[in-house]
Amino acid sequence: MESSTQNQTLTVPPVPPPDQSDPPGAHQRKGAVEGSATWSLTDRIGLAICWALGLLFCAIAVAIVVYLLVQGIKFLRPEMLWTPAAAGFDETETGGFSDALFGTMIVAAMGIAIALPTGIAIAVWLVEYGRPTALARVTESTIEAIAGIPSIVLALFGTVIFSSTALGFLSRSSEGVVFGRSFFAAAAMLSLVALPLIVASVREGLNSIPRHVREASYAVGKTKAATTRRILLPTCRPQVATGAMLGLGRIIGDTAIIVVLLGATQNFAPVEGAAFPFNYLRGAGTTLTNFVYEASPTGNLNQPQKAYAAAFVLLLMVLALNAAVDVVHRRARKVGTWSH
Amino acid sequence: MNEDLPQEYGPKWSDQRVERMLGALVCGVVALLLALIVTVFVHAWPSFAHNGLAWFSAGGDVEEQLNAISLSAQTSGEYVYTFHAWPLIWSTLLITGGAVLIALVSALFVAVFIVEFAPEWMSNILQPVIRFLASVPSVIYGLLGVLVLVPFIGNHLVTEEQKASVAGVISLTGYSLLAAILVLTVMIAPIMVSIFSDGLRAVKPGWIEGSLGLGINRWRTTWKIGVRSARPAIVAGTVLAVARAIGEAVMLAMISGSVAFAPNPADGLIFIYEPSRPLGPTIVKNIDQLSSPPFNATLFSIAAVLLFSAAMFSLAGWLARRSMRKYLMP
């Protein structure tokens, strides 16, 4: 029953938005393209610069991928993925980065679990409700401002809130002093990093749904809330997914918040006396970005080979997310929702 | 659908209730931002109060001042706050300014290329490439900078005479302004490109066609009509990129050299090989001192400056875009 209702909303024939004569992305050259042979020399030099810079960007991207691929294949051993880091004198003794890998997954899951519902709710409020107008303006600026706040500032703010005694249950504390560094703290602050991307993406999706769809739903007696939940959100599922994956990419790529709010350790440091998932989540930990940072020559561990291996794994995650965004876009176009 | 009726029409999910719940959440996020601003400035206040405007000035060695601050918390009851941040600010200005300038010019060319001049296959390659470059984590850029770019600069670009000429002051190892600017450029240019190209695509086709119809070639039309009308997007993209560049901490902590030294352009071109340390990395590098009250205030004062400058850039961008409203699509 559940799936059939959703299918119904998706198989409504695609209707181009009536008020948008030239949707972004549909701008295409029509007719024969003028060659550059008749241009003056300066114009042709400019076009050459365009080509050079475009090829340079491609070359940089290829260089990053190929270089990390080579180094990753050279240094990555499968056992690193399930061996925790250990103290040792050289790189053969120091184990792997399993704790960092799991840490990245935990932080990503927790961060997105906070950011996604919040982001969707804010976007829905902005597009569907948005009254009083002043509050809507303030909210828009707030989201924009959060996007512009350096993550290191967010991290410092996090140390203040999560060191307060009221939130002591979210991290390690001893004799009334709250440590303030835990997976909870890091994930909460990282969700703020992902929030603007999710809000922007979901808003774009909601805005692309034409007005008459909502009116049709109201006309059969559905409330605004039911319309949003049953029609609008299912329709802009591609945008929700895109926003979530862009946010995930930012969360797993962030280092400053992890360095400050997850503690300077390379292993899980579970809190004693707490129930299973919470002892780990309340404790300090590490992620791949933190591991790469510490294992680089400027960090405390200085194990470049492990850093390359971990960076390679991180890059694979980012590439997978990028590919997933592409797939979602392509499928959305094929299904023919109102999004373009 | 019928089994949903009681739930959806019942008082639990009534419209007023949902609206109030969502409104409360939105107010919560706004309050969180206000709390952040207030918290950062309150915690930063002791440092600003003790230093006054001298906080922004040059004077003394920043490393020694930071050491004195951290020592004062351990030894006597009298906290020391003296901190003159000019070398850090200057380094931030040089690195951010250099990177934003290079990125702005190259991103403009690339965006124009993608939207107007690249053949179909080329723009189909370039768009994912740009998206990929924008999504690479900064720590990977930092790692590649440390292990590839920095040794290259240190071993091949900096000559022995140059190293000898500044030997008494600072050692040139490749951790340098140049490395920081180049890597930061690669980090922020993709952000600019994607916003610029969205702006260029949204230019009214009629304006472009009008110019083409007058016999003006595509290149000139693009720059005189397309880029000009896309100015609001260019401002928006630049502001976002500047905010990212100012706040970048981890990558710069890895490759800028982490020496509180102010490279002087008057020394000649050698200054781009000199190490320095911007504001953000100073926080990252000293984060273990966060629990000492005077150091805490100093780190928060740096954060407050970052926050304030990011906010000012956003405001400037907003003002600039307001005056360009006529270029925006209705």
Straight-line distance between termini of chain A = 28 Å
Per CATH, the superfamily of chain A is MetI-like
**Biggest β-sheet strands, sense, barrel of chain A:** 2 strands, antiparallel
CATH topology call of chain B: MetI-like fold
Number of domains of chain B: 1
- The CATH homologous superfamily of chain B is called MetI-like
The fraction of residues in strands of chain A falls at: under 5%
SSE blueprint:
The complex is a heterodimer of chains A (340) and B (330).
Chain A: H1 2-10, H2 41-75, H3 98-129, H4 133-148, H5 151-162, E1 173-174, E2 177-178, H6 183-207, H7 211-219, H8 224-235, H9 237-253, H10 256-261, H11 276-282, H12 288-295, H13 304-335
Antiparallel strand pairs in A: 1-2
Chain B: H1 5-9, H2 15-51, H3 62-74, H4 86-117, H5 120-135, H6 138-157, H7 160-165, H8 177-201, H9 205-213, H10 218-229, H11 231-247, H12 250-255, H13 279-285, H14 293-322
Helix pairs in contact in B: 2-14, 4-8, 4-10, 4-11, 5-8, 6-8, 8-11, 9-10, 11-14, 13-14
How would you portray this structure in words?
The complex is a heterodimer of chains A (340) and B (330). Chain A is an all-alpha fold and 340 residues long. Chain A has a single domain (84-335), classed as MetI-like (MetI-like fold, Orthogonal Bundle). Chain A has helices at residues 2-10, 41-75, 98-129, 133-148, 151-162, 183-207, 211-219, 224-235, 237-253, 256-261, 276-282, 288-295, 304-335, and strands spanning 173-174, 177-178. Chain A has a two-stranded antiparallel ribbon with strand order 1-2. In chain A, strand 1 (173-174) and strand 2 (177-178) form a beta hairpin. In chain A, helix 3 crosses helix 12, helix 6 (183-207) packs antiparallel against helix 9 and helix 7 (211-219) crosses helix 8 (224-235). Chain A is globular and about 65 Å long. The two termini of chain A are 28 Å apart. In chain A, 45% of the residues are buried. Chain B is mainly alpha-helical and 330 residues long. Chain B has a single domain (86-327), classed as MetI-like (MetI-like fold), CATH 1.10.3720.10. Helices cover 71% and strands 0% of the residues of chain B. Chain B has 14 helices and no strands. Chain B has helices at 5-9, 15-51, 62-74, 86-117, 120-135, 138-157, 160-165, 177-201, 205-213, 218-229, 231-247, 250-255, 279-285, 293-322. The longest helix of chain B is centred in the first third of the chain and has 37 residues, at 15-51. Chain B is globular and about 75 Å long. The two termini of chain B are 40 Å apart. The chains are: A mainly alpha (340), B mainly alpha (330). The interface between A and B is large, with 95 and 95 residues.
